[in-house]
Amino acid sequence: MEEFFHDYARMGRELGGANVPTTKKGVDDYLADSLPYLGVTMPTVELLNPTAPWRYPVWQRPVMTLVDWAIQDLHPQWAQKLMNTRQYPKPVAAARRRMVKGLLNGFRDGKIKEVYEAYERVGATPQS
Questions:
Q1: pLDDT for 82-120, tens place per residue?
Q2: In this structure, are residues 19 and 11 in contact, taking their beta carbons and an 8 Å threshold?
Q3: Which of 44, 65, 77, 78 has its CB surrounded by the most CB atoms within 10 Å?
Q4: Does a structural domain hold residue 79?
Q5: Is residue 59 located within the same domain as residue 107?
Q6: What is the model's pTM?
Q7: Alpha-carbon gap, residue 39 to 11, rounded angstroms
Q8: Are residues 94 and 55 in the same domain?
Q9: Is there a single domain that holds both residue 118 and residue 85?
C-alpha cells in the first residue's frame, strides 16, 4: 500500500504538485489539515442554492418554496435525506406535483415553442 502512495505522489510531483504526501499517514494528515477549506460555509450554501425561498421577496416565497421542493423532489431518496427535503404524505406530494406541473404549464399557456418545434421536426402531432 505504501508503494501505491509513493507512486501516486511521484505522479503528483510530475504534474506540478508540491509537497505531495508519500504515505497513507501523510495523506490523512494533509486531509485533516484541509478540513477548514473543505467545510460548507454560508457563502457556499448561498452559491449552491439559488432557489432557496429566503433569497426572494416575501411575496414570491410561497411560489419559490414550491419550486424549491419540486426540484428537490426530483432527486433520489438518498439525496433527499442528505438535503433534508421535507417529506409529505403521498396524496399531498402528488397534489404539490400537480400544482408545479400546472404552474409550469401555465407559462405561455402551455405552449412551449421548443416542444412544438420538436414535434414539427419529427412530423408528429402534439398530444393534448
A1: 778 888 899 999 999 998 888 877 766 666 777 788 888
A2: no
A3: 65
A4: yes
A5: yes
A6: 0.47
A7: 27
A8: yes
A9: yes
